[in-house]
Amino acid sequence: MKRVSILVLSVSLFFLVGWKTVSANSSWAVIDADTGRLLMGSNENVPLPIASLTKVWTAFTVLESGMPLGDTTISPAAASSEGSSIYLEQGTTIEVESLLYGLMLRSGNDAAYALAEYAGGSVEGFIDLMNEKALYYGLKDTVFTNPSGLHDDRHLSTAYETALMMRYAMQNEHFKKIASTPTYTFELDETTYHWSNKHRLIHSTETAVAGKTGFTKAAGRTLVTFFEKDDKRVIVVTLNDGNDWQTHLSLSEQAFSDYKKETVAKKGLYSFLPGIEGELQQPLQLLLKKGEAEKVTHLFQIPREVQHNGRWIVYMEGRPLFSTDVELVY
């Protein structure tokens, strides 16, 4: 049986300066997709336009809205929406599932507005849902004013929070399937459509699992990519980067090289207090650089009243990274 000792470490905070220099109106972030921990970044907390990376949250909001994925009819407003399009015609009845693929693979603004009307009752109602969900997930520097990412001075997020959006969305298996699909084929009114994912790394790079592209004149090129290699998962976001494909490849490979997946708590039975034990069903693991393991601390929360579960929280330099329930035995 293992015993838990709770240590409080005195650490010096420092700022990690990334190797890639960016201007004040551009930024990037790399996070651990399993924990959401920021691994590298520059200007990662500066609110900037994110263009069509917005559609990650649009798809996620639709999929978690509770609305069944049936059929919907394209309204005049959706058919005439500004920007990139999958060329939906007014009055066409189409499966919501296909709209989600058109949204994520082809970045259709018409698909975004049709989905917003379907899941939110109106575009305005859906935008409220998007912002409520952002607040629920702690995205305090993110504001949506439309479901597509068309420029609006108030429609902003940060590289770090956009990476978190992708992390939360990828935990939805339906979203993960859509966002990682290279090509999608479907039939509509006896016509067969073949859509290829605009995210070129999904077609060409084995480690690139899923992602989304974006562009407006105000935002520049924006890109989010979910990478996986050797059981390590990272998410890379760049905002206003004209060389984003190469940047994503370089940053992901740097993260995979610099960070190792280490077990910070083994699975098994632990004694927390005299007469109180609990079993950790799975090992707790983190992506860590050399020397970072000593900065990891643990806190176990035991409820005041007798309950079945306690809470194991893992900290890095005094900041909570993630937590898990542990079944208690009294």
Q: Shape from CA axes?
A: globular
Largest sheet: 6 strands, mixed
What name does the CATH topology of the largest domain carry?
Answer: Beta-lactamase
Strand order of the largest sheet: 1-12-13-17-16-15
Q: How large is the radius of gyration?
A: 22 Å
Total number of helices: 9
The number of E-state strands comes to 17
Give a written overview of the molecule.
There is one protein chain. The chain has about 325 residues and is of the alpha+beta class. The chain has 2 domains: about 1-10 and about 260-330, Immunoglobulin-like (Sandwich); about 45-200, Beta-lactamase (3-Layer(aba) Sandwich), CATH 3.40.710.10. Helices cover about 25% and strands about 30% of the residues. The protein is built from 9 helices and 17 strands. The strands form 5 sheets. A 6-stranded mixed sheet has the order 1-12-13-17-16-15, with no helix packed on it. A hairpin with a 2-residue loop joins strand 12 (about 270-275) and strand 13 (about 275-280). Residues about 5-20 have low confidence and may be disordered.
